[in-house]
Amino acid sequence: MDVGKRAGAWVVISGPGGVGKTTVVRALLRRNPALARSVSATTRAPRTGESEGKDYFFYSRERFERERREEAFLEHAEIAGHWYGTPAAPVERMLAEGRVVLLPIDVQGYANLKRKGRPGVGIFLMAPSEEELRRRLAGRGADPEETERRLRLARKEMEHKDAYDVIVVNRTVEQTVADIEAALRKRRLL
Ligand code: 5GP
Predict the structure, then answer these.
(1) pTM flag (> 0.90)
(2) Which positions ≥6 away from 21 have C-beta within 8 Å?
(3) Which atom belonging to ligand 1 lies closest to the Cα atom of 13?
(4) Which CATH superfamily groups domain 3-186?
């Protein structure tokens, strides 16, 4: 019988840009109030529609450097010339409360967390095909050169997919969310 509080756990959600991580994470949170998410810090500029503290904490390089030196990040990585990091304190607090915390981070961040040896789950989202990914990236308004650069990055990320516990092909948000929920339930995290 399950008595007492469950142990918290982190659930990394990785996948190439354009695969739909943000939409999937939002849908998971909406459907499962028991889940929490980490909000990362980044040195990149906000995109249209993004807000401070909701999508990211937007840091100057100086602030990021300082906090990195102070070991305020659970993990951090440089991606396409910008720094990204998971602020440790809020995640530690949520884990201590026994919550399951979603971390939408890249493959380097996942490798770093795994190295720390804390129990968690890694989920990798794939696009149905490269053509589909190209279409989704182009739909974001990137110029053809930028789209090709992002596709190259996506191919590199996908080389690491086998390091993850679960690989989900994101055909529809509904199916992907159902697949992830099933994977979490199987591990008694939902
Ligand atoms: P974007 O700039 O498109 O929002 O994110 C670029 C990449 O950075 C994505 O793969 C995203 O998952 C990853 N990312 C966002 N926050 C973090 C973080 O805190 N740590 C790591 N390692 N990657 C992150």
Answers:
(1) yes
(2) 13, 14, 15, 104, 125
(3) 12
(4) P-loop containing nucleotide triphosphate hydrolases (3.40.50.300)
